[in-house]
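can u do me a favor
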């Protein structure tokens, strides 16, 4: 397989000087993340007649990506489909399929995305196009993570990273490292997640990709948030929101606002946190991103429950359950059932709560989400009437906490996690001294 990898170099033979000039200006503007300007230049390039089909298809792809990055999804999809149908060049068709896969994934259409990525991977292997192979592997890895198969996700993402390291594709390495970090976080492997996100941040900053640097900052903050290092998380998320706003990264802003909302609720600023969470929910719905809609609904449900707003919690849990079924992925089924179980427990319906928490447990175990599992076991220890079974759940929760804390290299971060009230409550109930972990 060729070790040459390029995201933009291809022959301009047969392209008029004026069209080529507009194309180059569009590429420069896109590289500078001036996406509206890039769209204008690419549109100018497409106005010229008698252009080679491959050139025309590539311009459609690049313009589609610019539309995608500013949140114009219908325009992006139209351009990607034009790119797919304009040229019979297998490499270019595979590139367009990967882009369409990313769009389908964003919308929560996982079966459609899987089919597109698998076809692109087949075509990329056939033509020995490392760029396409790496992107398709990354896409399939992300889908595996979303659907709870984190072992497969790690394999595919690691393969994608090796391909991009071989080809020296800095931006693509950063994108894969972001996905690897998120997968490690979903497994509760926060030390490895932090390492991946830090490397992603450095690589993306080196190519001045402000859009994805904001994403890396957000992800770093999310790891600290999961470990109850809320002050540090808030700092990261504030930086991420500022950069995303400056870069016009509209797709990222709802996700960052969700995290800021969680940070504020966790630090006792409930009303301010709700403002961010509700803004995040509105943004995810406007973009049609079901995954982030589910995550936001889950955080809203927990916020309402823990502050006694049961009526609002009921509405949000129902919405979360609906979105989880649309996504048809274990991770979100686990979140939906967990929130529903906690709601039932708050309503004093312990038997029903336990049944729902058991459903959440089955889905979460499939998804290998340690960060959810310890909380679930802690909740089940409260819901069950059997003291022996409650003790078993407490011990399992404590073991997951130990597995989370021990690998953390930062002593302050480890102690912050172990001494967070929800964690400390489990450890004390299980008669474990946090200082001995």
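np, heres the sequence
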């Amino acid at each position: 397989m060729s070790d040459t990898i390029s995201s933009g170099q291809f022959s301009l033979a047969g392209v008029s000087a004026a069209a080529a000039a507009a194309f180059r200006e569009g590429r420069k503007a896109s590289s500078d993340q001036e996406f509206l300007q890039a769209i204008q230049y690419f549109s100018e390039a497409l106005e010229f007649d008698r252009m080679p089909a491959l050139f025309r298809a590539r311009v459609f792809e690049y313009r589609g990506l610019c539309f995608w990055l500013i949140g114009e999804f219908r325009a992006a999809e139209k351009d990607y489909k034009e790119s797919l149908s304009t040229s019979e060049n297998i490499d270019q068709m595979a590139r367009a399929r990967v882009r369409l896969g990313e769009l389908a994934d964003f919308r929560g259409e996982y079966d459609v995305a899987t089919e597109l990525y698998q076809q692109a991977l087949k075509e990329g292997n056939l033509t020995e196009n490392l760029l396409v192979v790496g992107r398709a592997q990354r896409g399939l890895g992300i889908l595996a993570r979303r659907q709870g198969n984190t072992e497969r996700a790690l394999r595919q993402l690691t393969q994608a990273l090796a391909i991009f390291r071989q080809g020296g594709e800095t931006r693509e390495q950063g994108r894969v490292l972001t996905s690897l970090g998120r997968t490690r976080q979903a497994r509760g492997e926060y030390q490895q997640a932090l390492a991946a996100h830090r490397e992603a941040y450095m690589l993306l900053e080196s190519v001045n990709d402000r859009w994805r640097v904001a994403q890396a900052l957000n992800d770093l903050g999310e790891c600290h948030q999961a470990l109850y290092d809320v002050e540090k998380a808030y700092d990261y998320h504030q930086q991420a929101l500022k950069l995303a706003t400056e870069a016009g990264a509209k797709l990222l802003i709802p996700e960052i606002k969700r995290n800021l909302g969680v940070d504020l609720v966790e630090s006792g600023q409930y009303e301010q946190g709700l403002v961010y969470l509700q803004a995040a929910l509105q943004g995810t719905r406007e973009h049609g991103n079901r995954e982030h809609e589910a995550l936001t609904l889950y955080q809203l449900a927990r916020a309402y429950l823990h502050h006694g707003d049961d009526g609002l919690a009921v509405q949000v849990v129902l919405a979360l359950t609906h979105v989880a079924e649309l996504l048809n992925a274990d991770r979100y089924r686990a979140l939906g059932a967990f929130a529903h179980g906690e709601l039932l427990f708050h309503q004093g319906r312990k038997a029903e709560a336990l049944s729902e928490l058991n459903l959440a447990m089955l889905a979460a175990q499939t998804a290998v989400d340690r960060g959810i599992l310890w909380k679930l076991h802690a909740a089940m220890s409260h819901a069950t009437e059997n003291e022996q079974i409650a003790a078993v759940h407490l011990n399992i929760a404590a073991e997951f906490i130990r597995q989370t804390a021990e690998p953390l290299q930062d002593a302050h971060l480890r102690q912050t996690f172990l001494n967070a009230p929800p964690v400390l409550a489990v450890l004390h109930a299980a008669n474990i001294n946090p200082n001995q972990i």
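The chain is about 80% helix and 0% strand. hope that helps!!
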